[in-house]
Design a protein that fits this description.
The chain is of the alpha+beta class and about 1400 residues long. It contains 48 helices and 31 strands. Keywords: Membrane, Transmembrane, Transmembrane helix.
């Protein structure tokens, strides 16, 4: 090295002569010297190396990775003196075989070994000389210690990184076992096919290459694979090639074996021999061709990974073979197929037992049993979701109630209500199915055994066909078109409008319209009556024919399988049943009448063919809409290049569409262009992994993290809670709304966009069943990109104002679309199905906190409310007496008792502190009392237990100490810069989220009980913000202490004020709290602002847009291929640019992260119909024994009241003379007059004549009226005779009256636990607790049963309560005898008891 130079001690060493070494982008080592005489440029480091060192550097050195965590063994048997290579910043020790390594290391070692007796230069020379004397070291071998067994390891001559570059690392033992087993199977199957001479010449070599590739993929897989759905290393994709190879080889061997067997019976279907050897050999050759095309197939990604393929295959079997639902996971698909197989097996025995009897055949009693069980089982399966996790939870709770109870006891305060709600829904559906299935089985058995389907053939089948077709056309075509926003894309408005259609802002839930009720009942009759009868008729008619064609064994299986699918389809999804029905009938009755294989098999096969044709039609619509020349949107130069080149390949495009429709595979635009390629087959769920958004809040981050860096403060993370709440709202009402037809025609796999003012989300309906719908929501950003905004404008703009037609504007007919508008609407991949879909959600209002606290006066008001809120919470605290009497607190606050004491902390400021003492330059106790003593005394006066609140009391001292502490904490959080608005807002937000930092020794007394901070100061900060908000609407209202106290109390009950990162905030939103308030700190795009967020629960209006599901699947598949396989990370790539005709940007941005960028993706959520109150009001809820019992009791009570009114109004009836006599005597005794003569009743010619004393009746009525309370005299004087002689109040000699008396008089549990609602407060007896006119059940009830003890509370109309006692007129038991001529109910409402006449309440039924 040159004179006056030294090696730099660190990267920041800029002293004179400091030499820095660094490596450029080409791997060359350079040096730079800080010196006045330096050239100012870097020079190669080799120039500074002395000559003796060059010879040493020529030796080859090898180093291992210093960051390796695996065991590395250095195998060097001969001793060699190696240099210690230290780990220095930017050390070149990390570089392999660098010739300058030794030089830099020697310099570093020289600096580390430098002492006071040697100079740097002499030490460096000494190191070089020592190195010259050492012999060249031998080459070091690196070995990786591979654990072959837990007790045995072997050495592999690779280091860890080199070994990972060569081979994949299996993480579990199962992966190792699977890899070895699959490699053996590949070898076995490959040898079997080679020895069988299936391949010749070149194809033998190609097949061997395929075998080797399948085996090698188990050692080193292709990453990323073209069919991989995730970024990074995919462990499952490594098994795809060998699994598919084994499956194809098995098929080849099986088909070859069956084609050579002559013992198989040949079965024909539509003239095609299903087991013909020639057909089997053709299938074998087709599979062999697929085997030889494996390299091309896997490069193009035409086969999914093995678990996706298994789920896809099982779902296809479940939906097309068994008529079931789509599935939500691999486990759900497997369980669904097993459940369907068990169901077919259960009914097969009855079917076989009946059909083997060729005489009775389908009229055998076992066939009737078969039909009953088949319909009941199909009904139950149609109401079961594919996911059995919730069902297992319900069953385990029933079976293991004790364990479940112990788990419930350990739950925290923050509880998600959704799981319990789902369990209750599933439990109620199971109870209902147990009742309904039993009734269905018996009813179908009775109908079928009556031979109605045999005697009335073929008329009954033809009539049912006509009815089913007509009802289907009206229900699923005409009515949905009438309700669309643009019916038939010709009309400008819906022909059937909802009540909310013309409302600018929806203020209530959607009103049920008459056409919605008609739609529900039409679907109910179609699903539960028409189609079951039709398919039972066809089963009875076609079963003998199928047995003759296929034999008793296979024929019974075909009948069982076809019957189960047809009935499940009729119960689950009747959307396209009428189309399949009409097409099947005309095709096999007029086009090809001789090709029919019975209506049962015809309908079965046509349902499969229709689903494929419908997918093909949707794909063609998507392709034609996407590549239409007049609306193509080029997102990049490649799009413009690909557009003309795609035209010559249009025929191939249609072939691809047909093939992809057959395999249910997406047809995706390559890089978003006009060139389409087929992707691999996917299930309806589409996405392979169960991705859902996990919100960042204080419950899943470290305390230091969210105090210092404030994670989750971006708008997207905080706004995701609104989509989560929207998901819960949809879970509550979606299934019922779909049954009501508010989203139009909906099938499994359909995709919808919900758009409102700020919420835009995509809803993917995954599973549809009988009374259930499983969906997934994908919420988009509130402030989306430019492309997203353009597409939102396209779906929200109206088209009725367009008056163009071609190049002119002639206008349009009234309520019709113009020519241009009608043409453009037909070239869209989406359509508006509803413009006023009402859903419960939250309206969001945000105000800038800076504008509300800009001036000092506004900050002073906030501090004043802050102090008053602290005082309020201190006085209201149940631990107040403990704090006041605490000796440690008293000792710490003793200094505050001095009249001249003042806290002169610099935090306090006369500009913002209302009680600032200018004389003492601080907050004194005197100034504090002058400002807040009256408020303290008012709060103490409202306290239930009296407390001393005088000027010198301990309460005032405690309030003073806490208020000073709270302001000092605010000042500390504001960095003692409260005069600065930014600092003040920063400190306010820190306290709002609970970041209190006690730094002053004066405030350490609060550590005696931290509840003072948590229960008094923290809520005081939050409440002050709400009071400050209210100040702008009514500035002087809170000057009244009573109004302020009531306002804080009301906010405590009705409002949740919390930081958005607090788990309590999420819990409050998900539990539908009416109002919420938060202070949000937004750090986004360089902006740093504070917002006051206010949420109010209300009804929101959404536009519902139905998107072509093949458009969504194709665009999703294209994005997955582009980002995962092609690795296009360009954020402005052409495939995500806006395309209004396909909503390309909104769809692509809704993909799973990191492919898309939704701010919220919900888990798969199932909505049940029994949670929708409007649907239940039309068709009723789920059945249960309790509901049936309650309905019978209600019906009997209604009948009892009606009969009583009829008898008293002159109708015929039977009455007991003794009861009439007792009633008259009791009334006269009560009034203090002489007993009246008994009333007699005689019968003449079938008529009843009542003989009684008019004067006695008048005296009784007058006496009764005089005894009634003043508030109820009018109702008593106008009482009808029906209540006086109601059967509920008498015991007659007839059996009906006896039963009535048993139910009403003796008071069963259902009668006592009756739920009622007050409808007339004028019939409340609010003074009967004074005196002894009634005998009360308990003295405690009487003490809370009148206005003398109610004080400020009073019963109002609409209040609901439970009946705890009943007084009846003329009752024999004095404890149950009414003092007036009408029944009186004692209703428990809140903590009070309300005596009210029975006619003043509405019966709500038995309390469950």
């Amino acid at each position: 090295m040159a004179e006056n130079t030294h090696l730099a001690m660190s990267h920041e060493d800029t002293t004179k002569g400091a030499v820095h070494c660094f490596q450029d982008e080409f791997g060359n080592w350079l040096t730079y010297t800080f010196d006045d005489n330096s050239a100012g440029v870097a020079v190669p480091a080799i120039q500074a190396i002395p000559d003796p060192l060059v010879e040493v550097l020529n030796d080859q050195w090898e180093t291992g990775s210093s960051s390796s965590s695996s065991t590395v063994v250095i195998d060097n048997k001969s001793e060699s003196h190696l240099l210690d290579i230290p780990d220095i910043p930017g050390s070149v020790a990390r570089q392999h075989r660098n010739r300058h390594l030794l030089y830099t290391d020697s310099i570093t070692e020289r600096n580390q070994d430098d002492d006071n007796n040697s100079t740097p230069d002499s030490e460096g020379i000494r190191n070089i000389i020592c190195m010259e004397e050492k012999p060249p070291p031998k080459k070091v071998k690196y070995n990786y210690r591979f654990p072959l067994f837990p007790w045995k390891t072997i050495k592999v001559t690779y280091d860890r990184l080199a070994l990972l570059a060569l081979l994949d690392r299996n993480r579990t033992i199962l992966e190792n076992i699977a890899a070895v087993f699959l490699s053996m199977l590949v070898g076995v199957f490959g040898s079997l096919l080679l020895t069988a001479n299936f391949f010749q010449d070149f194809f033998i070599f190609l097949f061997c290459v395929i075998i080797a590739s399948c085996q090698y993929s188990l050692l080193k897989s292709v990453q990323p694979d073209s069919a991989s759905p995730v970024h990074g290393h995919n462990r499952i994709i490594a098994f795809s090639r060998p699994v598919y190879f084994c499956l194809c080889c098995s098929l080849v061997l099986l088909l070859d074996y069956t084609s050579k067997q002559a013992s198989f019976s040949v079965y024909h279907l539509y003239g095609l021999p299903l087991t013909d050897p020639g057909l089997l050999r053709f299938a074998r050759d087709l599979v062999m061709v697929l085997l030889l095309c494996f390299p091309l197939v896997f490069v193009l990604g035409l086969l999914p990974q093995c678990n996706t393929f298994a789920m896809y295959l099982l779902e296809q079997v479940e939906t097309h073979i068994f008529g079931g639902h789509t599935t939500t996971s691999l486990t759900a698909a497997f369980s669904s197929v097993c459940r369907s197989l068990v169901s077919v097996g259960l009914v097969y025995g009855f079917c076989f037992g009946a059909l083997r009897d060729t005489v009775l055949s389908s009229q055998h009693v076992l066939f009737s049993v078969f039909c009953g069980l088949l319909v009941a089982m199909a009904y139950h399966l149609s109401r079961c979701t594919s996911d059995l996790s919730v069902l297992w939870q319900v069953l385990s709770r029933w079976l293991f109630a004790e364990e479940e109870k112990s788990d419930d006891d350990e739950r925290s305060d923050v509880v998600d209500p959704l799981p319990e709600k789902l369990r209750q829904s599933v439990a109620s559906r199971l109870k209902s199915d147990a009742i309904v299935c039993s009734v269905i089985a018996m009813l179908v058995f009775a109908i079928h055994v009556s031979t109605v389907f045999t005697v009335l053939q073929p008329s009954v089948t033809n009539v049912l066909l006509i009815v089913a077709g007509a009802v289907g056309v009206v229900t699923h075509y005409i009515m949905p078109q009438f309700r669309k926003q643009l019916p038939w894309l010709c009309f400008a408005h819906p022909l059937l409008k909802t009540h909310e259609y013309h409302q600018f802002e929806v203020r209530d839930c959607a009103r049920v319209m008459w056409f919605e009720k008609l739609y529900v009942w039409l679907r109910f009759v179609e699903r539960n009556v028409v189609y079951p009868l039709l398919f039972l008729s066809t089963l009875t008619k076609d079963a003998p024919v199928l047995v003759r064609n296929f034999g008793p064994y296979l024929g019974s299986a075909v009948v069982s399988l076809c019957g189960l699918k047809l009935l499940r389809g009729s119960f689950s999804n009747t959307l396209h049943q009428h189309v399949i029905l009409i097409f099947t009938y005309f095709f096999f009755h007029y086009d090809f009448p001789h090709a029919s294989e019975t209506f049962l098999i015809d309908f079965y096969c046509m349902s499969i063919l229709f689903s494929k044709l419908y997918d093909f039609l949707l794909k063609l619509r998507f392709v034609l809409t996407y590549i239409a020349p007049w609306q193509i949107t080029w997102g990049s130069a490649f799009h413009a290049f690909a557009q003309p080149f795609s035209v010559p390949h249009s025929a191939m495009l249609f072939v691809q569409a047909a093939v992809s429709a057959f395999f249910q595979a997406p047809l995706n635009p390559f890089l978003g262009s006009a060139i389409f390629i087929t992707s691999y087959a996917r299930p309806t769920k589409f996405w392979e992994r169960d991705y859902n958004t996990k919100r960042v809040d204080h419950s899943n981050t470290r305390l230091s993290t969210h105090l210092e860096r404030n994670p989750g403060s971006d708008d997207n993370n905080l706004n995701s809670i609104f989509y989560e709440h929207l998901t819960r709202s949809l879970q509550h009402s979606l299934c019922g709304d779909l049954i009501l037809g508010r989203w139009g025609n909906v099938a499994a796999g359909d995709c919808f966009v919900l758009a409102s003012d700020y919420l835009n989300c995509l809803v993917h309906v995954i599973e549809m069943g009988n009374g259930l719908a499983t969906f997934q929501m994908r919420g988009l950003e509130f402030r989306g990109t430019y492309c997203q905004q353009r597409e939102v404008e396209a779906i929200t703009e109206g088209v009725d104002e367009d008056e163009g037609c071609c190049c002119c504007e002639p206008g349009h007919l009234p309520h019709m679309l113009s020519g241009n508008a009608a043409f453009n609407q037909r070239w869209l991949a989406w359509e508006v199905t509803a413009v006023k879909y009402v859903l419960e959600g939250y309206s969001i209002s945000d105000n800038s906190a800076a504008s509300m606290l800009q001036v000092f006066d506004l900050r002073k008001i906030l501090i004043s409310y802050y102090i008053k809120s602290i005082i309020y919470y201190v006085v209201r605290s149940p631990k107040l007496e403990t704090w006041v009497n605490n000796s440690d607190i008293q000792e710490a606050l003793k200094i505050c008792l001095d009249k001249t004491y003042a806290d002169v902390d610099p935090t306090f400021n006369h500009n913002i502190d209302d009680d600032y003492d200018l004389r003492l330059n601080g907050i004194s106790r005197h100034s504090f009392c002058n400002t807040y003593l009256l408020w303290i005394q008012h709060c103490a006066g409202r306290r239930e237990q009296a407390v001393d609140s005088s000027r010198e009391s301990a309460l005032v001292t405690l309030c003073f100490g806490l208020c000073v502490l709270g302001r000092r904490a605010l000042g500390t959080a504001s960095h003692h810069m409260s005069s600065s608005l930014e600092s003040f807002l920063y400190g306010l937000h820190a306290l709002f989220k609970g970041d209190f930092r006690i730094t002053s020794p004066k405030d350490e007394w609060v550590f005696c009980d931290m509840e003072m901070l948590r229960r008094c100061v923290a809520p005081g900060v939050r409440m002050s913000l709400k009071l400050h908000q209210d100040h702008f609407t009514s500035p002087d209202e809170y000057d009244d202490h009573r109004v302020l106290y009531d306002a804080i109390t009301a906010h405590e009950e009705n409002l949740v004020i919390s930081h958005e990162g607090d788990p309590a905030w999420r819990n409050a939103v998900l539990t539908n709290v009416q109002s919420l308030l938060a202070l949000r700190h937004v750090l986004d795009d360089g902006s740093d602002e504070y917002k006051i967020i206010m949420l109010n629960k209300r009804y929101l209006s959404f536009r519902v847009i139905k998107v072509n599901r093949e458009c969504v699947r194709g665009l999703w598949a294209g994005q997955q291929q582009e980002l995962v396989f092609l690795r296009n990370r360009n954020p402005e790539r052409g495939s995500i640019q806006n395309a209004k005709q396909a909503l390309r940007n909104m769809i692509n941005s809704s993909c799973d992260q990191p492919i898309g960028y939704p701010i919220y993706v919900s888990p798969l959520t199932t909505s049940y119909s029994n949670t929708n109150e409007q649907l239940n009001s039309i068709v009723g809820g789920e059945l249960s024994l309790e509901a049936i019992k309650s309905s019978i009791i209600k019906t009997w009570r209604r009948l009892r009241k009606t009969c009583g009114a009829g008898c008293n109004s002159g109708g015929t009836g039977v009455q007991d003379n003794n009861d009439n006599t007792n009633c008259g005597q009791q009334q006269n005794t009560t009034s203090g007059s002489t007993p009246a003569p008994p009333t007699t009743t005689t019968s003449t010619g079938g008529h009843f004549h009542r003989h009684s004393s008019g004067s006695s009746n008048r005296v009784t009525a007058g006496t009764t009226e005089s005894q009634a309370p003043p508030a109820s005299r009018l109702s008593v004087s106008s009482t009808s005779a029906s209540t006086l002689t109601s059967p509920a109040n008498k015991q007659t000699a007839t059996p009906i009256a006896t039963i009535t008396g048993f139910i009403g008089d003796h008071g069963s549990k259902e009668a006592l636990m009756q739920r009622v609602q007050i409808i007339d407060v004028g019939q409340v007896y609010d003074t009967v607790n004074v005196g002894r006119r009634l005998q009360w059940p308990e003295e405690s009830m009487r003490q809370r049963g009148g206005k003398s003890v109610w004080r400020d509370w009073s019963p109002r109309e609409g209040m609901e309560g439970t009946v705890v006692h009943r007084w009846l007129p003329c009752h024999r038991d004095a404890a149950r005898r009414s003092h007036v001529d009408k029944p009186i109910l004692l209703v428990s409402i809140e903590d009070n008891f309300v005596p009210i006449a029975e006619s003043g309440v509405l019966d709500l039924g038995a309390e469950v």
